[in-house]
Amino acid sequence: MSQIYSRLGVRTVINGAGTLTRLGGSLMEPEVVAAMAEASRSFVRIDELQVAVGRRIAEATGAEAGLVTSGAAAAVTLAAAACLARLDFARMDRLPDTRGLPNEIIVARSHRNGYDHALRAAGARIVEVGVAERTRDPQPWEIEAAIHDRTVAVAFAAGFSDLRLDEVVRVAERHSLPVIVDASAELPPRSNLRTFIAAGASLVAFSGGKGLRGPQASGILCGRRELIASAALQMWDMDHLPALWNPPAELVDRDVVTRGVPNHGLGRAMKIGKEEIVGLAVALERFLARDEAGERERLDQVAVELAAGLKRITALDVSLVEHAGRWRQVRLQFPDQPDRQTAIVVARELAQGSPAIYLADAGAQAGVLVIDPFCLQPGDAQAIVARLDELLGA
Questions:
Q1: Quick one: the chain helix, strand, coil %, rounded to 5?
Q2: pTM tops 0.90
Q3: Could you read off the pLDDT of 221-250 as tens digits, one per residue?
Q4: Would you say 96 and 125 are in contact if contact means Cβ atoms under 8 Å apart?
C-alpha cells in the first residue's frame, strides 16, 4: 500500500474498470510527475504559460488555438460559455444568467447524457432533436428545423451513436453556428486529436487524465481562436488594473484589451495551476511519441491472459470484446440461475474485499461485468483471477 494513502487511512484499489474519474483516472508517467514537481518550484504568468502550451495543443490538434482546463467537463462548460458570450464582457459578467439572451444549444436526443450538465452549467438551455421512440439519430433537417435566433451552438457527444459529425457541421455552418464536441474519452487513438477539428468542429474537449495519462484534474479545449480567447478570459484571474492589463496578443487581440478588463467569469472556479498545465503539456508530448501499436498489443495480451485464467471458472461465460477499435476487454457474463451470485453481488464483494477490486459495472443489472486492462498494474490480473475464483470457483 502507498505510504501516503496508508497515512491517510485510504485503501488503494485494483482498477479493472478503466479510466474512471471516481477511481482516479489513469496513472501519470514518471516524466509527467517530474515536470509537475519542477513547475512547482517557480512562479510564472499563468496566461503566458497557457498560451505557450496552447500553441502546442494547436499544433497537435490542427486547431487555431488551445487551452488547458481543469478537466473535460470544465472544457465543455467553458466551450458553452464561449458560445454564449463570445467576446462580450457584459455577457461574460452575466453568465450563467442568460435570461433574454440567445442561449439555446441543440443536442441530438441520442447524445443526451449526464455530462451535458456541463453545458447547462454555463447557462445554456438544451434543445433536443430526434425521435425518442425510434431510438435513432436526428436527420439533418431535424437539426436545421430547431435553429432560430436564440440558438448559439450545436453540441455533439463523440462515440454515443452513428450520427456523423460532418453532417452536423454542414447544417451548423449554413447558420454560422459553432459545433462543440465532447471527446473526453476518445484518446487513444492518437488520430482522434485531429479527427474532430478536421471534420469542422469549432471547439473540442478532451480529458487530460484518461488516455493521455496526464494530471487527473486537467483537460484540453481546442478550436477557433476567438472562442478559445473567450473561454480563457472567463477562466483567468482578472484582478488587473485596466492600465496594466496586458494579456498575450497571440490569443487576445488589442482591440479587446482596450475595452477594459472583464470581471471574473464563471470559469474562475475552474482554474488550473501551473503544475497541471505543465503536466498536461508533457503528457501530450509523450502521447504523441508513444508506440501506439505496441501498447495496443501489450494490453490485448493482458486481456487474452485474463480470459484464459477466468475460463476455468465454470460459473462465468468469458469472452473477449473489442473496445471501440482499440484493445480488447474481457466480458464476464453471469448465467441467469437463482443459485448463482449475481453480477451486482459479485461487484460488491470485489469492492469490499482485500485487495479492493473494481470492474466496469455499467452492465451489471444485465448480468455483465467487464475488465478493461488499461489501468491494470503488474500482478493485478492474477489478483482478479484469484479473487473471482475464490468467490465463484466452488
A1: 45, 15, 40
A2: yes
A3: 999 999 999 999 999 999 999 999 999 999
A4: no
